[in-house]
Amino acid sequence: ISRMDWEHGVLATHLHISTAINTVQAAIKHNPDTSVTNTSSMATMTNLAMVSITSLASAHTQFVNWAWETVSRLHLHMMDRGILESRGILEGNVDIFSQLLDYDLNKEVEIVAAGAVRKIPLACYTSLLLTQLGHSLPELLDRGLALLKVVQDAGRMDHVLEILMYITPLLMSDLSCIENAAFKNILTTLLSADQSYISMAKSMISGTFPGPVTREAGNMLEKMIVNYEKYGKDSPKEIIDLWVKILTSLPGWNVNNSALFLLDILCSHSFFNPPIHSATLQVTNDLQKKFLLESSGGIINWITGVNYSGHKLLFPTSTAQFPWLAYFFLQSEDIHCRETGLWAAMVKQLSEQKPLEDALVSASTQCETSPPLSSQLPIYRWLQQAMDTPPDHPMVPIFWQRFFQLFLSRPVATHEGEEPRGVGMSFFVGMLNTMYYNKIKTGLKVLQEVQAKKATEVEVEADVSDIKRLCDKLGKLYKTFYMWLDEAKILDSTLYIPALSPVYEPEKLAQVLSGDRTLWMDYIDFEGPLLEHCKAILEWDTLHFRVKLENKLRKPYADHNDFTPSERIL
Asked: Which of 394, 161, 91 shows the shortest CA–CA distance to 269?
């Protein structure tokens, strides 16, 4: 059975269904004790961490694992078949729903359903794949999630992820369902699974992040995103938006690295697609405002006395592990600072030679807003993220662009003909800030060296001309940034941009000084993220038996061409 081609459309659907039912019936017959059927998390670790423990397993355990693997190979769930079936389920098509086996009434699935009632994990898993409990949203919420929890409690996290991939699109029709307690509990357990696995078997799997379950959850998201057409959508916007809302609704999501890893994947897709970019930014804006409101006490704090303890931020430090996610939340902080008028008021105060802390208090009073700590100002936040992010990450030039858009800020001219001076150096006054300023310049030099080394390394490889061009381009950009930072004339009121040497990138400098906040997408590596997405999808397809079988001629058992047929039989 395992060697047959179970790709959807190759064999009739009824063969998939009958094979699954017979496999589950055999597993129940030879393993009536549910406590034995609930084989431990080791099976999940075997699949996800690819740890070979088959030789240590008993024949019985091997049979149970084979049964799980066999059912997983089959295309049973409507969302795992063709576009017609998956769209039909989401649209409530009566003809498609009529093809499901009735969990309560269908004789064909009676033994499987009885096994699910007894909480046998494989029977629960198969019931979700074959019946209305895994296809109808009301049934899923009423009875289906309880079956999925049984599968999860058996340690079958890879199969939980399969079911989640099939059922999550159903939630697009009613976003309030993401608040369902059972659904949240399943996801919370899933996101903490790697911690328990690592503590259970440190000698078997690596403790490096992400762990096997989190990584596989990320692969599931990648697979769902690329499958958007199966959901009847023109783009992955709705599925990305749904998962962003699901993950940010979980308790403690902003301190859970597994949740942040998944959000980072979603944000890496959002970033390159303008409509999805805007939608994701709106979600982070709303989260930012809600968090600030809850932590600040609202306008009452302002009336009774300014809160000098600063803002309570969702991410108080830089998130070097998750740069795509960091961009959206830093952008939200930046937008909030500008929308309140705080940034413009601060720049004005600093242009009048006020010390930073005094300028911050005066600006906050003028704008009637609770002030952040000076270290929470967007200029420092973008800078720290730029410094902490790995130098070869595609987002590094964007973080530096955002920093310089603030560093080169100038106050609005109060009368015609006035050319105000830039206030960037006001943020680097004092011994500690001067040391930090020198560290920034060193960081920009290191970035130049990294790109130069990378360009040299790719010269010896074929078909890498685009990579080399990007490396050279980034190296020049970081050199320009260094000069913008190091030379006082860039902040001077008498700066005449047309007279600058090309090394200063006069056109880019003019854009920044004019207040143009358009992202410099031509400095971003598009190819790297795309390859990562493709790699994740292939990994999912491989581990979940969705890689197409190659058409190869079967090789004879023994390749002795000089033997007669009779001799080969003997």
From this structure: 394
DSSP letter at 131 equals: B
Instruction: Identify any residues that bridge with 105 across adjacent strands, giving them in sequence order.
Output: none
- Coil, strand or helix: which one is 87? helix
Which residues contact residue 205 at a Cβ distance below 8 angstroms, ignoring those fewer than 6 apart? 45, 49, 51, 197, 198, 211, 212
Tokens encoding 151: 């599968």
DSSP per-residue codes, 101-131: BPTTT-GGGHHHHHHHHTT-HHHHHHHHHHB
Per-residue pLDDT of the chain (570 residues; tens, 9 = 90+): 777 888 888 889 999 999 999 999 999 988 765 443 444 444 444 454 444 444 445 777 888 999 999 999 999 999 999 999 999 999 999 999 999 999 999 999 999 999 999 999 999 999 999 999 999 999 999 999 999 999 999 999 999 999 999 999 999 999 999 999 999 999 999 999 988 755 445 434 455 889 999 999 999 999 999 999 999 999 999 999 999 999 999 999 999 999 999 999 999 999 999 999 999 999 999 998 888 877 654 433 434 344 456 778 889 899 999 999 999 999 999 999 999 999 999 999 999 999 999 999 999 999 998 889 999 999 999 999 999 999 999 999 999 999 999 999 999 877 665 678 899 999 999 888 899 999 999 999 999 999 999 888 876 554 567 888 999 999 999 999 999 999 989 999 889 999 999 999 999 999 999 999 999 999 999 999 999 999 999 999 999 999 876 654 444 444 445 555 555 444
Q: Could you give the dihedral angle defined by the CA atoms of residues 188, 192, 194 and 200, in that order, rounded to the nearest 10 degrees?
A: -130
Residue 20 CA to residue 129 CA, distance in Å, equals 10
Q: Which pTM was predicted?
A: 0.89
Alpha helices in 273-395 (DSSP H): 274-296, 299-304, 323-339, 342-351, 356-367, 378-388
Alpha-carbon span 325 to 548, nearest angstrom: 34
As a whole number of angstroms, the distance between CA 40 and CA 226 comes to 32
Angle at 542 between CA 537 and CA 545, to 5 degrees: 115
